[in-house]
Amino acid sequence: MLQRKNNLTQYLPEFVYGGIDGAITTFAVVAGATGANLSSDVIIILGFSNLIADGFSMSIGNYLSSQSDQLLKKNMNLPVSVKSPLSTASTTFLSFNLIGLIPLLVYVANLIGFIQQHLFLYASILTAFGFVFIGALRSYITQTNLVKSILQTLSLGIVAATLAYFVGNILEHFLS
Questions:
Q1: Torsion angle of alpha carbons 33, 36, 40, 44, nearest 10°?
Q2: Where are the alpha helices (DSSP H) in 76-118?
Q3: Which class for 67: exposed (0-12), middle (13-18), buried (19 or more C-beta within 10 A)?
């Protein structure tokens, strides 16, 4: 059991990396589309397209980076990581999609008739919980202050979403 736990915890950095980016980019897409007054249907289309494409892109980048690092170390006769590039890439993709799905859950609930109002507010609250979770995991991995790690992660998400919201809003006014 201990060996299995160690095998899983060695992939936590990739999980945090994918989760942070998944939450930030998907929430930014939702915020930008909300700022542009786009419909829930469009937000779902843009959000899921981003979720799959960007998650795949990140996992490919992770795979190629890990593979290149291992090849370089092997060529230089340095110790090579026991983590396989495919496993790190898969962890990044899974995390990106799991945590990145959070901002879209409210819009899916709206699509099937569960929630009718204040969609962006509810998406913001749910996403904040995702940032808190990922910030806490980040604190665990880095052995740093829990509150500081959570606040950093939450702050980055808020800044990215704010920027995206205002860009969407400005472009919507400029283009219409």
A1: -20
A2: 85-100, 102-111
A3: middle
**How far is it, in rounded angstroms, from Cα 84 to Cα 19?**
19
Alpha helices by DSSP H, 76-84: none
How would DSSP label each residue in 155-169?
Answer: HHHHHHHHHHHHHHH
Q: Which two tokens stand for residue 175?
A: 């283009």
In this structure, are residues 65 and 83 in contact, taking their beta carbons and an 8 Å threshold?
Answer: no
Residue ranges per structural domain of the chain: 14-175
pLDDT in tens, 85-144: 999 999 999 999 999 999 999 999 999 999 889 999 999 999 999 999 999 999 999 999
Neighbours of 84 (CB within 10 A): 13
Q: Given CA atoms 168, 170, 171, 176 in this order, what sign does their dihedral have?
A: positive
User: Is pTM, for the whole model, over 0.85?
Assistant: yes
Give the up-direction half-sphere exposure of residue 164: CA atoms within 13 A in the CB hemisphere.
Answer: 17
